[in-house]
Write a structure and sequence with these properties.
Keywords: Detoxification, FAD, Flavoprotein, Heme, Iron, Metal-binding, NAD, NADP, Oxidoreductase
Shape: globular
Catalytic activity: 2 nitric oxide + NADPH + 2 O2 = 2 nitrate + NADP(+) + H(+); 2 nitric oxide + NADH + 2 O2 = 2 nitrate + NAD(+) + H(+)
CATH architecture of the largest domain: Orthogonal Bundle
Strand content: 15-25%
Distance between the termini: 33 Å
GO molecular function: FAD binding; heme binding; metal ion binding; nitric oxide dioxygenase NAD(P)H activity; oxygen binding
Order of helices and strands: HHHHHHEEEHEEHEEHEHEHEHEHE
Number of helices: 13
CATH superfamily of the largest domain: Globins
Strand order of the largest sheet: 4-3-6-1-2-5
Helix content: 40-55%
Pfam families: FAD_binding_6, Globin, NAD_binding_1
Organism: Ostreobium quekettii
Length: 408
């Protein structure tokens, strides 16, 4: 398949991009409505909460605009393509799904353009879509093959809950072992697995969710650590509440193999410092990284910085301290935004407030290393901006955003 568009097609894409920028979310709202009405079989691949809040529509709009902006130089989009391909593979997206998306995306562009639409415009955007679809289909196919070679399966497999641990007031861990088959191949630190929730959970259809693996790579079980989502004026986290309220020992869950590009190469011979910055449940993937570092990278200077609300919501504190002590070169720093009197009396945290530029400038003498960020969008945006301002190399900033990919 050709990896370039004709000059005439590029001209049309570039000429219509300003219009698309103005109407992008209108197009994506129209797209999702048309697709879900005509092809309800694809609904399980999408989080209804993200649809209801508009995050999915904004994320798709941003992705389309980024594609249009860089369509003459697709190599710029390599990292984004990798992220999307892994996300698609985790949800079981197949080649036959792409024509469905293409049909409804072009129909949405046509509908929103109205009288300004033309067959020439639709053909150009159709060619652009097919080019990107081909790139993603090829990459996703290789990921499925990697799953079979590394983990021995693709799709979903039954796992049994063997242990449930209340890690904090709002985070619960579930230990999972395969119902049949041998042990588990080690995941890469930072990866996630996919759970398929049965139809009764959402009232009519199966749905899928990604959850980071929080245990050491190579353990004989998977551990996911799930935050109960209760957001004012927004849909509750349907699947997270189902797990918290109904899932315990001996329950059987359908699980997809480890996936994701937010990973740490703990065996790297690089000597620069490693800096992990997490907020709330964003601790889960970087905790797996810390496990890997404690075993395979004792030569590295490590900073583990975590922010949470207070002692009630602080998960894995003892585990982090044990790993830090076993490594010997890990410096931890805990932020509580609103500590209780008991938190202060017991000295459970280091700093009251939020992670900011002043703290990073004071505590990170060397910004030449690798940074791994995971947490709420506001947290990551603030930390990323501060690090760049302090001279960190943007290519060494690695971010994991839970939910749809939106620009920071």
């Amino acid at each position: 398949m050709s990896r370039a568009l004709a000059p005439s097609t590029l001209s049309i894409i570039q000429a219509t991009s300003p219009w698309l920028k103005e109407h992008a979310e209108e197009v994506t709202r129209c797209f999702y409505k048309r697709m879900f009405d005509a092809n309800p079989e694809v609904r399980p691949m999408f989080n209804p909460s993200h649809q209801a809040t508009g995050r999915q529509q904004r994320a798709l709009a941003g992705a389309i605009l980024a594609y249009a902006a860089h369509i003459a130089e697709l190599s710029v989009l390599g990292d984004a393509v990798e992220l999307i391909a892994y996300k698609h593979a985790s949800l079981g997206v197949q080649e036959e799904h792409y024509p469905i998306v293409g049909e409804h995306l072009l129909a949405a562009i046509d509908e929103v353009l109205g009288e300004s639409s033309s067959q020439e415009i639709l053909d150009a955007w159709g060619q652009a879509y097919n080019l990107l679809a081909g790139i993603l289909i090829e990459r996703e196919g290789s990921i499925y093959e990697e799953h079979e070679v590394r983990h021995g399966w693709r799709g979903f497999r039954e796992f049994r809950v063997t242990r449930r641990v209340e890690e904090s007031a709002n985070i619960t861990s579930f230990h999972l072992r395969p119902v049949e088959g041998d042990g588990l191949a080690a995941h890469l630190p930072g990866q996630y697995i996919t759970l398929k929730a049965p139809a009764h959970v959402t009232g009519g259809q199966t749905t899928m969710r990604n959850y980071s693996l929080s245990q050491a790579p190579g353990a004989p079980f998977y551990r996911i650590s799930v935050k109960r989502e209760r957001l004012p004026a927004k849909p509750d986290g349907v699947v997270s509440n189902w797990l918290h309220d109904h899932i315990g020992d001996d329950h059987i869950l359908e699980v997809g193999p480890p996936c994701g590009e937010f990973v740490l190469d703990a065996a790297s011979e690089a000597s620069g410092p490693l800096v992990f910055l997490s907020g709330g449940v964003g601790i889960t993937p970087v905790l797996s990284m810390l496990h890997a570092v404690a075993t395979h990278a004792k030569h590295r200077e490590v900073h583990f910085i975590h922010a949470t609300h207070n002692g009630n919501t602080h998960a894995f504190g003892d585990e982090v301290n044990r790993l830090a002590a076993s490594h010997g070169r890990v410096k931890t720093h805990i932020f509580y935004e609103e500590p209780t009197d008991e938190d202060r009396e017991l000295g459970r945290f280091d700093t009251e407030g939020r992670v900011d530029r002043a703290f990073l400038e004071t505590h990170l003498r060397d910004v030449s290393g690798e940074f791994y960020l995971c947490g709420p969008r506001g947290f990551m945006a603030t930390v990323r901006e501060a690090l760049l301002d302090l001279g960190a190399d943007e290519t060494r900033l690695h971010l994991e955003a839970f939910g749809p990919l939106e620009s920071l």
